[in-house]
Amino acid sequence: QIKSEADLLYAQAQAAAPEDLWEIAFIRFLNALMLQETSPTERKLDPVALGEAVLRVRPRDYFANAYLGDEAGRRNDQTKALAYYSVSVTERETLGALNNMTCLLISSGDVEKLQSIVIQLIRLNAEKKRPEVTDTIGEVLYTLGRFEQALNRYREADRAFGGKQPVVRLHIAEALLRLNRAEEASRILQEIS
User: Fold this and answer.
1) Which residue among 27, 34, 57, 114 is least enclosed by CB atoms within 10 Å?
2) pTM for the complete prediction?
3) 78 contacts: CB under 8 Å, gap ≥ 6
């Protein structure tokens, strides 16, 4: 069982951490847990092993699942990453984990899951208006064959980025090509090359 001081620190991190900084809060929690609860040999464990240890005690923990999802994604283990993210976004619906999960689903081609997750992304992004998430929503719509809607999202993201993100500009060109607007796409490609 996790000691009360670590529990308190963890609860404070969960409540106070801005969603972009959840990983820092989680690592702080792991450090506190490691100092209070682990044997000398366990103190040499890496954060992934510690995250897995947290999941043995708290299997539905948001921070641990999101962190392990990121780590599995970095190791190109999509199956594990999706499993961790699925638990994470069920426990605490945040744009960061949801956006990462969506990117994995796009690359896996899981259209059924994409259709359900895009609604969550749109709803959550309505108040935050993060351009990288708007671009991801465009990618989902593009993957689903809704090219005009994807183009609208890409343009929205492009405006928010001030036209300075080449990858977003490339997404606009791809959508334009799908909409048989090759001349417009060609101009954009020339601008970013």
Assistant:
1) 57
2) 0.64
3) 72, 104, 107, 108
Of 159, 166, 162, nearest in space to 191 by CA? 166
Residue 172, SS3? helix
Distance CA 192, CA 87 (A): 39
User: Quick one: tokens of 160?
Assistant: 């928010």
- Give per-residue pLDDT as tens, 68-87: 888 898 888 988 998 998 88
Rounded CA separation 166/158 (Å): 9
Which residues lie below 8 Å from residue 115, measured CB to CB, with a gap of 6+? 144
List, for residues 151-188, the tens digit of each pLDDT value: 999 999 999 999 988 999 999 999 999 999 999 999 99
The runs of H, that is alpha helices, within the chain are 4-16, 22-37, 47-57, 62-74, 78-91, 95-108, 111-128, 131-143, 147-160, 166-178, 182-192
CB 67 within 8 A of CB 26: yes
